[in-house]
Amino acid sequence: MTRTPSPATRFPAALCVALLTLLGAPAAAQHTTIEFFTHDELALHWWVRAEAERPADLQAPEARAAIAALRDYEQEGGNPMLVWARIEPLLLAGLPLEDAVLRSHARGMPERYYNDAGGLSPEEARTRLHDLKPDPRPYTDALDALRPWYLATIAPAAGREVEAAIESLNEYLAPRLADCYRDACDALGMTDPGHSVPVYLVPSGPRPGAITYRSRTGLACVVALDAGTDCQGAGLDLLVEVILHETLHALDFATQEQPTALQQLRAALRESSHVERLRDLPHTLIFLQAAAVVRDHFGPDHRGYGELCRYYQKVPAAIRALRQPWADRLDRHVPLPETVAAILANLDDAERAAAERNRPTATQPARPE
Ligand SMILES: [Zn+2]
C-alpha cells in the first residue's frame, strides 16, 4: 500500500492555457485548478470513521475491533472533528498514522517528543506513544490488523469507484471549471490567486463527508464519494457542488488579505451585535455560492446541498439573512458593501422581531429567573 499520494490526474484546462501561451495567444486569466489525489491510508481511516457512524452489522471481527478502538479514541480525545483535524493533515502529508498522531501532539510538548530536524526513528516514536493521552496505539494496532481484510474485501471495488469518479469529473467538471471559478470569484469579490488545489477523493467518510485542511504543508480538501448520498436527489451534481464548496474554502483561505465578500461580512459581524454568527454566516454563504455555480453551469434545477441535505434547517437565521441579498447580488450585481449591509440589516430585523416576541406584556408578566 502506498502512503505517498500521487496525482491521479491534472485537469487538461491547465495544459490548454500553457499551450495557448506557447502559441502566442493572449494568456487567459489564471484561475484555480483542481488536482485530484487518492490516498490509501486516508481511505482506510475514513472508511472506519464512516462505518463507526452506522449500525454495527459488519461481520469481520477486525472491522468491529477497529471501529470500537476508534470510538474509544474519539471519546477520550473530546470533539472528533478537532481530534482528527490535528492528525489528518499530517497523514495527507505522507506520514504513517502513528507518526501523524505523535507529531500532532508536538505543539506544547517537550522537545523529546518531536524532533523537527531529523524526526524520531519508528522504534523511538512507537515507544513514545505510550505517553500520549489518549493513547492512540489501540486504534493504530487495530488498523494494522484490519488492513489485510480491508485490502481484500473493500479496497478493490472502492478503488475502482474512485477512479471512475475521477474520470467522470474530468469529463464533466474540468471543461467548465474556469467558468465556475470566474463566476464564484466575481460574486465573492475575490481575485483568483490561480492556485492548484489538491482534492483527495476517498470512497466513504464520516458526515458531512468533506473537509478542507489548512496546515503547514498547505491547503488540502478531502471529499468522500458518499458525501450526501443519503440525501434525496443526490447525484453527480451534488458531488460537484461538494468539491466546489471545499475548494471555495481553500480560495477563502488564500484570499484572507483581500476585501472579499467573506472578509467584509466577517468584519461587519465583528463590529455588530451578531458576532456569534461569525462561523455560520460566511459558511452558509459558501453553500449558497457553490450551489449557484452548479445551477448556472451544470443543472438549472439543482437544489443544492443546503436544501437537499437539510443543512439550511440547521442555520435558519443565517439562511434567512443571506438568501435575498445574495440572490440580488447574483442577479443584479448589487455592489458588495450594499449586499453586506442588507445581510446585516436582515440580522438586525430578526433580532428586533425576536426581542419584540420575547417582550413581557401587561397580561404576561416575565417569569422570575
Ligand atoms: Zn464547508
Structural class assignment: alpha/beta
Rg computed from alpha carbons, rounded to a whole number of angstroms: 23 Å
Residue windows where pLDDT falls under 50 for at least 5 positions: 1-27, 108-118
The main sheet comes to: 5 strands, mixed
Number of separate strands: 5
The sequence of SSEs as H and E is: EHEHHHHHHHHEEEHHHHHH
Broad shape: globular
Per DSSP, the total helix count is: 15
The separation of the N and C termini measures: 61 Å
**Strand share of the residues?**
5-15%
What average pLDDT do the residues reach? 85
Sheet with the most strands: spatial strand order: 1-2-3-5-4
In this entry the ligands are: zinc ion
Question: Helical content, roughly?
Answer: 55-70%
Question: What topology does this entry show?
Answer:
Layout: E1 7-10, H1 12-22, E2 33-37, H2 40-52, H3 61-77, H4 80-92, H5 97-104, H6 122-129, H7 137-153, H8 155-172, H9 177-188, E3 196-202, E4 210-215, E5 218-224, H10 236-254, H11 261-270, H12 280-297, H13 305-308, H14 316-332, H15 336-358
Helix pairs in contact: 2-3, 3-7, 4-5, 9-12, 10-12, 11-15, 12-14, 14-15
The protein binds zinc ion.
